[in-house]
């Protein structure tokens, strides 16, 4: 972009086609290789003297978004850039989470300012000389949000010993996290982000985590664990530091013994309570550890407890025995000082402190869309009031971000949904900021470091590279509704029952109160479309399950869980459902739209979105669809065949001046889930000898005396875990 007077620019605005919000980080490039990126308001100020006032093809791309117009197979549009003119383009969001803005670095709203637009919170073009920052840590302290980063790049220097800043907390008079974060940096005499760890010795200093605890006088103190190193692989020391409020720096207070040194791993602690005592929990790499929330305890490595398999005195693993049900013995997990935690990092498995233990039987992250295992590690884990569960923002392969949830902070972590995808770049160390949560946790915010580093891609994105980007995720979105455990327990009369977390009584929080997790299902208050309710009831003194809404005797009962119907028809047998469609004109331009077919008895109705389109005629016969749509007082005729779960056909206007093709793909949750690796039939088994029912996803139980139902009750999600590791004693604060 060449320098020019403000009125010379041609303004390009790229917006989300649903929310209307500007999209940051949209790659706009020309056929000669020139390119630039929209700023955090989705704005680009374009000026190229040789290209003004003539038709120019602009390629449009962005991570997790789709531009729906293709020109010669390339997403983009032909525009005539005119000084003082503008164009508003829209993209369809593919990511579940929505990209909001860049938090750090230079020129966050550079194009908006060049065009004379204001920036949220009056965020400066260059704040404290910061050009790039790596890995954010944040905590509420002294009535503000305190932020710290690793390596910080300036205009003419770097800070390798931690940079820091503060911002105001949200509230009636505070900033809105939807519009940006106004950072007030701690600066040196030259105005650059100063070193927050100046007295730690030679080498780089990175903070592994920060936490707020109270000292022996009851005063809140900001504490950090640090790693000092010569290089990524050459660690000098690890230790603890405490923030000096008067000097606005960290000071080392304890150095760990060399045998306790570990590689730097970013961590985002949370506070919780056990038996009315406050603890700080750490979750990086699934190395679950905790310590009393006091200054003395958190700075003493000997007081930390680790979660893992508990062992007998002879070194063998402790096991518990299940009762009167066909299930093997299982090892016992719990908290123990000096125990060896299980660490599952993205890549090789390791453990610390001490020798490695490669146990993964109690952590099995699976893609809800496919059932395929995902090598994702937690960026952060926090309690969420809206979901009434612990939620995880996890990272896979540096650039893919996943959402998962569990009954307890240590698990069971099984099913997850990818919410952000980045192509050929890294987006690592993601962290959810609970202090920004809205609507009782329904809306959450998380950020991560966007960079070409570690991706194998040498191409750096101007301004965005090596900086922090904020995303927003709506936890009421059905796409992030995930299967939850269904527990098999024994009641006080030693009879088998099935319960979900919300039905567990306090007595079942003891370890032996739960026999097993036999399968996963959807919780009733967060249920995707296409599922059916399953009820629990008493039949002659024994607990049984009954699926469906067809039985009026269950109409007043709350469902125990939701599952998929066992007799789910193939797509060729039923058109009813949601369809993602697109039209393609003779020039290759694409336009998306949604169709929803609803069966009312033998009559099939159709709805369409966006609202600018209306259906004036619809017929369906012999797997052939005929639609007449009206848009801007022009009628379009659509004809398609319905085969193998797809719609394919042609369209034209009434005068046949415009013609093209169109197709559709079924998007229903139930249809997509029925073919995943994790969805399996649930069978009922009756014990002929002792009486009682159990429910299993196994086709046959090898134990004698069990008789299986002739057909499955419903379809559920497999429990891929072989071990049962829970921590119901930990209560959120």
SS elements, strand count:
55
Strand fraction equals over 45%
The Rg value, from CA coordinates, equals: 29 Å
As residue ranges, the low-confidence spans are: 339-359
Tell me the structural class: mainly beta
Q: Indicate the percent of residues in helices.
A: under 10%
What would the average pLDDT be, to the nearest integer? 88
**Termini gap:** 51 Å
- Biggest sheet strand line-up: 45-44-43-50-49-48-47-46
- Coarse morphology: flat
Number of helices: 3
Biggest sheet character? 8 strands, antiparallel
How would you sum up this structure, described in words?
- The longest helix has 5 residues, at 110-114.
- The strands form 12 sheets. This protein has an 8-stranded antiparallel β-sheet with strand order 45-44-43-50-49-48-47-46, with no helix packed on it.
- It contains 3 helices and 55 strands.
- With 733 residues, the chain is mainly β.
- The two termini are 51 Å apart.
- Among the domains are: 6-99, Immunoglobulin-like; 362-479, no CATH class; 484-568 and 674-732, no CATH class; 575-661, Beta Barrel (Lipocalin).
- The model is unreliable at 339-359 (pLDDT under 50).
Concise structural overview:
With 733 residues, the protein is an all-beta fold. The chain contains three helices and 55 strands. Among the domains are: 6-99, Carboxypeptidase-like, regulatory domain (Immunoglobulin-like, Sandwich), CATH 2.60.40.1120; 362-479, no CATH class; 484-568 and 674-732, no CATH class; 575-661, Lipocalin (Beta Barrel), CATH 2.40.128.
